[in-house]
Design goal:
Layout (H helix, E strand, L loop, with lengths): L8 H14 L12 E5 L11 H19 L3 E5 L1 E2 L3 H14 L9 H15 L2 H9 L9 E2 L3 H16 L3 E11 L4 E3 L4 E17 L5 E6 L10 E4 L13 E4 L4 E7 L11 E4 L5 H9 L26 H14 L3 E14 L7 E10 L5 H9 L6 E3 L3 H10 L4 E2 L1 E2 L9 E3 L7 E3 L3 H12 L10 E2 L3 E2 L2 H4 L2 H4 L10 H6 L2 E6 L4 H15 L5 E6 L3 E2 L16 H8 L1 H10 L7 E2 L2 H23 L2 E2 L6 H26 L3 H24 L7 E2 H18 L4 H11 L21 H23 L8 E6 L9 H8 L1 E7 L6 E6 L2 E6 L7 H26 L2 H6 L2 H28 L1
Parallel strand pairs: 1-2, 3-4, 9-11, 15-23, 22-23, 24-25, 26-27, 28-29
Antiparallel strand pairs: 5-6, 5-14, 7-8, 7-10, 7-13, 9-12, 10-11, 14-16, 17-21, 18-19, 18-20, 28-31, 30-31
């Protein structure tokens, strides 16, 4: 077989992904094996692959490929989220480019455009995941607005409404004026911003007096319906019962009293605008104040805005402050930093707005989900555990969930109005069922479907995705079907901590409400991907690399390893392309090792050298020890530690040591016994590396031998852990230091490897002689002898308490230079020894320092003494 000396990643990646797909390895059906299930955190249908997706999906693929190798029925369900706000914004923008205004369309016409957009662009991110090697069950690809999933959402809404959990209320909500919809509290991001505090004077009716208030939003004075003072504030006792005049609009408003007012903040007087502030709304209800809404839905001013009608709120802020100053109402302006709520999706500044909306009561629903994560049983485990505190804080301070959105893209709320009153509605899964309910409620048999008008709002996208682990297996519509019973609860969820509440907590709530079971057992919370300067990666900063270009440059395997080398659970990943180069380098090393084995001529007649035999025993022990180690790391979701352990095993132990020991002399054959064992060990290496580097491992696996589809690496049997021989591993660690010592002497003395040397060992510390032939081969040592006597005229080094002598002919070294070098090293070591002994002679240090610290210093002392003795012996042999 003609094996190329270099690996062609692009060719292998397309070849093996097609092969895996052709043979249906990713697909799962119910059978008698143990299931292992992951549901993908559905990326927005608007999305393209970025570094966060790459990290998250690489981790999921590692877990699913490992489960598949372990013989489990691995099922990884992919899909996308309809992302109401983001998608509707994209569709509206596209229509605008075509000269079409959304407001000129009917709902049905708009949705036709939206589905066309989804069908054209919605699958991009899933196709990109295939480039990464994601082994999802693509036959199961789901979309949160698929008919079956939408039907599940509507079913749950109706059920929760009938249970009394869903209600319609006139409440102050978070309004996104760009998306023109409400947002839940969790979708509002608070940012500290530099603004101004405007001090404004209001005239008092019937007198020359004035009262001064401080506000950050002077434009909202047009919606003021009261001035509030603290009844205990003696400065304003004389204002009780009076009225003030709102500047510019000259409207009279009452001066009310309430202890809510902070006498220390601003001027101690508060303007009250019930339509535009949550706290003002509470005051307004308490004191029966008028409510004046001055904003249109896009945050321009309406007819209450006087001559500012139609202008944007921020334009008005500048203009009205100028007018107030010109007319003598503005006393002064101070710089002021305050927290401003912004929309997570559009980044627009949120407006508090009074509106009729649908809400879900959370107080009772949340209780099982709290117990699941924080109870003694820990039915749902968060990794790392530090996020339990975050979870507790959110869940114990939960507010009712605003689930309605003023959008068309999404599941339309199944409430049907038959009259003009606020309570003139029924909730049902279909229009026909709604008609039956409406007739019963009104005692009007003459009602028809034409008399019913469905609520125009859509449900919050999260109200769909919180059902994801159940709805993808049709567990809401058909709760007893064989798939939901087999695959649910799922095993692992991999996601970011930023949606711990948005999605993870809500899925747990839904799981207990509808299946009385956890939706998953473990939640692995990845960190955020940041650049080397610790900045979050974003398009605006220009610090986020093109994911597909990375794959092109470093291979999918290289990028996967690069991402995971520095990605401890819950800790942010400081991404550096050098990590991907390191991943690619591992792939090249594995390929070179494989290529080397293809160059060997195999002989069935020659005997196995003892050096090969002992080396193979050692590597088997080392492999078993590493296998136990990586299984422990897997159990703690420490995938960076898993890949690092595998990396060291293959790069250092297999390629760096084992292959060097067993490889035959130049143009000599290798014995068949050794060759077969090396290949068997290589195959085991490929199995544990496969979840991280699926493409190159499958390529090599298929080149090692002719395999049937049933023998592909992707479904091979994962190695089983057996007892490792610790003594053998320790012996080799010792021997590797001996070989390093010999190589150092060769390098220092310029002794070519082709020239043999002798090695004499003063064996103070009894070590096994099992590896003597290994020492001879890797050090090109002619003889190894053991002696009780030190050897004069020889170079030496120490490993622990053993001294190793390499006799060197006098004419091969420059004696003067050697004496000078050894003397300098001796002087340095003696100085170092003095500093250590000084520390150890300090009673305060010895008695006060931790035992471990003192032990380290004593070890330094012993090593320095041994080295000094070796250096003195070497000098004595030269003088």
């Amino acid at each position: 077989m003609n094996i190329p000396s270099k690996y062609n990643a692009q060719e292998a990646e397309s070849k093996w992904y097609d092969y895996w797909m052709k043979h249906n390895y990713f697909h799962s059906e119910v059978d008698d094996r143990e299931p292992y299930t992951i549901v993908i955190p559905p990326p927005n249908v608007t999305g393209v692959l970025h570094m966060g997706h790459m990290l998250n999906n690489t981790i999921q693929d590692v877990l699913i490929r490992r489960a598949r190798l372990q013989g489990k029925n691995a099922c990884w369900v992919p899909g996308t989220d309809h992302a109401s706000i983001a998608t509707e914004a994209k569709v509206v923008a596209k229509l605008k480019e075509q000269g079409i205004n959304k407001n000129d369309l009917t709902r049905e016409e708009f949705l036709k455009h939206a589905w066309e957009w989804k069908n054209e662009y919605g699958g991009i991110i899933l196709d990109q995941l295939k480039k990464l090697g994601a082994s999802c069950d693509w036959d199961r690809t789901a979309f949160t607005m698929d008919p079956a999933l939408s039907e599940s959402v509507i079913k749950v809404f109706v059920d929760l409404y009938n249970k009394g959990y869903i209600y319609r209320g006139y409440r102050m909500v978070n309004w996104d004026p760009e998306a023109k919809t409400t947002l839940s509290d969790e979708e509002v991001i608070y940012e500290e911003r530099q603004g101004n505090l405007y001090y404004l004077q209001y005239d008092i009716v019937g007198s020359d007096e004035k009262v001064t208030i401080a506000t950050t939003r002077p434009e909202t004075i047009l919606g003021d319906t009261a001035i509030c003072i603290n009844p205990n504030d003696e400065r304003f006792t004389h204002l009780k019962g009076k009225k003030a005049i709102v500047p510019l609009c000259n409207r009279e408003i009452p001066i009310i009293e309430d202890e809510y007012v902070d006498v220390e903040f601003g001027t101690g007087c508060l303007k009250v605008t019930p339509a535009h502030d949550e706290n003002d709304k509470v005051l307004g209800e308490k004191h029966n104040l008028e409510v004046i809404d001055i904003f249109n839905e896009n945050a321009t001013l309406n007819s209450f805005g006087l001559h500012y009608q139609g202008k944007d709120r921020f334009v008005v802020r500048k203009e009205i402050s100028k007018e107030l100053e010109e007319k003598g109402y503005l006393v002064k302006v101070e710089q002021h930093t305050n927290k401003v709520g912004t929309s997570e999706r559009t980044k627009a500044v949120i407006e508090p707005r009074l509106s009729d909306q649908w809400f879900l009561k959370m107080e009772d629903l949340v209780k099982p989900a709290l117990e699941a994560v924080l109870g003694e049983e820990r039915e749902v485990k968060l990794f790392p555990r530090k996020f339990e505190n975050t979870y507790r804080h959110w869940m114990e301070n939960i507010r009712d969930w605003n689930i309605s959105r003023q959008l068309w893209w999404g599941q339309q709320i199944p409430a049907y109005y038959y009259g003009d009153g606020k309570e003139d509605f029924v909730v049902a899964e279909t229009l026909e069922e709604a008609l039956v309910l409406a007739k019963a409620k009104t005692n009007n048999e003459g009602l028809t479907t034409n008399d019913l008008k469905q609520d125009p709002d859509a449900l919050d996208t999260w109200f769909s995705s919180w059902l994801w682990p159940m709805s993808v297996f049709d567990g809401i519509r058909n709760p007893e079907n064989e798939e939901i019973k087999y695959y649910y609860p799922t095993n692992d969820l991999v996601t970011g901590p930023d949606i711990l509440f948005f999605w993870v907590a809500r899925m747990i709530i839904a799981g207990y409400e509808y299946k009385d079971q956890r939706p998953f057992e473990n939640v692995y919370l990845t960190g955020l991907v940041r650049d080397k300067q610790r900045r979050k990666m974003s398009k605006s900063l220009g610090n986020s690399p093109d994911a597909l270009k990375l794959i092109e440059d470093y291979s999918a395997d290289g990028v996967r390893v690069g991402l995971l080398l520095s990605s401890a659970a819950g800790n942010d990943l400081l991404f550096d392309e050098a990590l991907c180069q390191q991943g690619k380098g591992l792939g090249n090393k594995v390929w070179s090792a494989f290529y080397l084995t293809t160059l060997w001529e195999v002989s069935e007649t020659i005997a196995q050298p003892s050096s090969s035999k002992i080396a193979l025993e050692w590597y088997k022990a080392k492999f078993q020890k590493t296998l136990v180690e990586i299984e422990d790391h897997y159990s703690k979701y420490r995938l960076s530690d898993v890949i690092m352990a595998i990396y060291k095993l293959i790069y250092d132990d297999f390629c760096g040591w084992l292959l060097e020991i067993v490889k035959p002399a130049y143009q000599q054959p290798i014995d068949a016994t050794t060759y077969k064992e090396v290949i068997a060990l290589f195959e085991n290496n490929l199995k544990i590396l496969h979840p991280f580097m699926p493409f190159i491992t499958e390529e090599i696996w298929q080149l090692i031998a002719t395999r049937t589809p049933e023998e592909a690496l992707i479904i091979a049997k994962y190695p089983e852990a057996t007892e490792s021989k610790e003594a053998l591993i320790s012996e080799f660690d010792f021997v590797s230091e001996v070989i390093s010592g010999i190589r150092t002497i060769r390098k220092d003395k310029n002794i070519p490897f082709k020239d043999t040397i002798d090695l004499i060992i003063t064996n103070n510390e009894q070590v096994s002689q099992n590896f003597d032939e290994v020492i001879q081969k890797l050090g090109n040592v002619a003889t190894v002898t053991y002696s009780d006597e030190k050897v004069d005229g020889a170079m030496s080094f120490r490993v622990k308490s053993n001294e190793y002598f390499v006799p060197i002919a006098a004419d091969t070294i420059n004696v003067e230079e050697e004496i000078k070098k050894l003397t300098e090293e001796l002087n340095y070591t003696e100085g170092f020894l003095k500093s250590v002994q000084k520390k150890l002679s300090n009673e305060r240090f010895v008695s006060g320092a931790p035992e471990q610290v003192v032990a380290v210093e004593k070890k330094k002392e012993a090593d320095a003494l041994a080295k000094i003795e070796t250096l003195k012996n070497s000098l004595a042999g030269l003088q």
